[in-house]
């Protein structure tokens, strides 16, 4: 990507005829942009004068504050007590493991134990909860109560439960915000400082994926009644300037294959409004490679606000997304597993599952009579760029080209999604596919402190996934046995570096004939 001298995008030519200047129709123009920030269009409603420590305060969006799931032993006890099949001793030991203060890293040890325990909260033992969320009780999800939200009126109606936009437009559909806007990791005065939003931003700027937009027309870049917008994936990483911001006017290629859509648009005073299309394909918001892919918004549309000089802009992307896809993508954001993330972020994605299903408001399924989609909006910022067509031979690169374990993680994630959706639809418990580090396996087996008194109790009592030797995988994609030990293709144990724990013993050759000494004795 090379910087170029910025060109004027709109010209007016005049010709002199009989001493009179006559304007000729404006020339065609094109403007390109690279997306600099990409986040859910959640709106914070807390009081700016609230200063009670690091607590994220209650507000008009979330009167009871942010989620506090698994924030302390009491919260974890409440979650585990919902399983009637657990004994009081089991719950007591999980919540406060005996001898925890004697180990080197008590916080991490407790996290691993809690992770394994909360991953099995079904109606009976042995059902992995995050793969089968329908099999667990609804823990309850604090939902947004504010009437103000960003987004679009996707259904053309004004319903009592709809939002009002910050500029007064009624009928705004953004049910995802209603369902998940009180999550602690997405709530902050400046959303870019919220934990999850900050992680998404880091990986966007770090080159995990790049999204670009190109707008063109034949009238004026700020006012055009017949413009065209293209949005899609770029194989080029975002370029930073000397201050760490998004560099202006660098070139990015756009791929016209997957994650690409071409839309009609109208521009009035710098506001670009696209048509509403049946399927809007764009790069999907992600912070790990296995989450990347096509957003595939149904009844999608885009609105941009471009500054007069064309160098930057802000905007919204909206439409209906399949709520099952959103559940999977948000529940398994980390290779560590869903329970691990829930404990760290004080969230409960089982509650999110029920909230998404409850708030679904689009994509009516005629067979079930239920909504498959939930209205969603994303907020973006733009920096001026030169967006050019990529060669047809260019494909979206595989992350495994740079880091091989990402390929099996992605395959495992796709298998996981298929199992979750199958279980939701059939109400039949599904297994955890190998390669998903769910329920703290094999981390608990590999990193459990030797000196903890209850080690055997936790390893034998708490459920976890089981696989034949060589089928399971560790963090780096290496084959392991059912106890979490790294093994080679013959089943021999290896150390962390992949070397044999014990030198292989020479195999004794067996002869079909009688021993030579016996033959000699008979001859004598």
UniProtKB/TrEMBL annotation:
Record's compositionally biased regions (Basic and acidic residues): 466-476, 483-493
UniProt KW keywords: Signal
Start and end residues of each stretch annotated as Disordered: 466-524
Signal peptide bounds: 1-26
Superkingdom of the source species: Bacteria
Compositional bias ranges of the Polar residues kind: 506-524
Record's protein name: Tle cognate immunity protein 4 C-terminal domain-containing protein
Species annotation: Bradyrhizobium macuxiense
């Amino acid at each position: 990507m090379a910087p170029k001298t910025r060109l004027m995008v709109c010209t007016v030519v005049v010709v002199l005829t009989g001493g009179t200047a006559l304007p000729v129709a404006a020339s065609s123009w094109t403007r390109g942009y690279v997306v600099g920030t990409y986040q859910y269009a959640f709106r914070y409603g807390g009081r700016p004068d609230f200063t009670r420590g690091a607590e994220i305060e209650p507000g008009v969006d979330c009167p009871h504050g942010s989620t506090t799931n698994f924030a302390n032993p009491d919260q974890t006890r409440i979650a585990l007590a919902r399983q009637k099949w657990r004994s009081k001793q089991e719950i007591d030991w999980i919540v406060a493991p005996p001898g925890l203060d004697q180990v080197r890293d008590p916080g991490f040890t407790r996290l691993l134990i809690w992770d394994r325990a909360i991953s099995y909260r079904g109606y009976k033992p042995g059902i992995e909860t995050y793969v089968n969320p329908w099999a667990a009780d609804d823990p309850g999800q604090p939902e947004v109560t504010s009437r103000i939200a960003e987004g679009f009126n996707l259904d053309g109606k004004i319903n009592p439960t709809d939002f009002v936009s910050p500029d007064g437009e009624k009928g705004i559909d953004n049910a995802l915000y209603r369902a998940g806007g009180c999550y602690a990791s997405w709530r902050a005065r400046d959303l870019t400082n919220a934990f999850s939003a900050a992680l998404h931003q880091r990986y966007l700027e770090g080159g995990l994926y790049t999204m670009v937009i190109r707008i063109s027309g034949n009238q004026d870049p700020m006012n055009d009644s017949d413009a065209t917008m293209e949005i899609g994936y770029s194989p080029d990483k975002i370029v930073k300037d000397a201050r760490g911001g998004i560099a202006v006017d660098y070139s990015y290629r756009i791929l016209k294959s997957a994650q690409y859509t071409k839309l009609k648009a109208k521009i009035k005073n710098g506001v670009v409004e696209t048509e509403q299309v049946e399927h809007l394909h764009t790069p999907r918001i992600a912070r790990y490679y296995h989450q990347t892919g096509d957003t595939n918004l149904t009844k999608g549309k885009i609105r941009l606000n471009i500054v007069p000089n064309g160098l930057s802009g802000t905007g919204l992307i909206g439409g209906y997304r399949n709520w099952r896809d959103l559940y999977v993508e948000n529940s398994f954001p980390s290779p560590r597993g869903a329970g691990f993330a829930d404990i760290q972020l004080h969230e409960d994605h089982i509650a999110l599952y029920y909230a998404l299903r409850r708030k679904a408001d689009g994509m009516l399924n005629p067979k079930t009579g239920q909504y498959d989609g939930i209205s969603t909006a994303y907020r973006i910022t733009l920096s001026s760029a030169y967006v050019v067509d990529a060669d047809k031979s260019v494909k979206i690169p595989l992350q495994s080209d740079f880091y091989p374990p990402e390929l099996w993680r992605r395959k495992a994630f796709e298998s996981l999604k298929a199992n979750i959706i199958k279980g939701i639809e059939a109400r039949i418990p599904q297994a955890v596919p190998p390669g998903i580090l769910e329920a703290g396996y094999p981390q608990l087996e590999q990193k459990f402190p030797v000196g903890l008194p209850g080690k055997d109790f936790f390893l034998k009592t708490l459920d976890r996934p089981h696989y034949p030797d060589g089928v399971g995988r560790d963090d780096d994609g290496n084959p392991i046995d059912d106890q979490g030990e790294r093994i080679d293709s013959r089943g021999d144990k290896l150390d962390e570096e992949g070397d044999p724990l014990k030198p292989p013993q020479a195999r004794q050759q067996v002869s079909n004939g009688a021993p030579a000494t016996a033959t000699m004795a008979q001859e004598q």
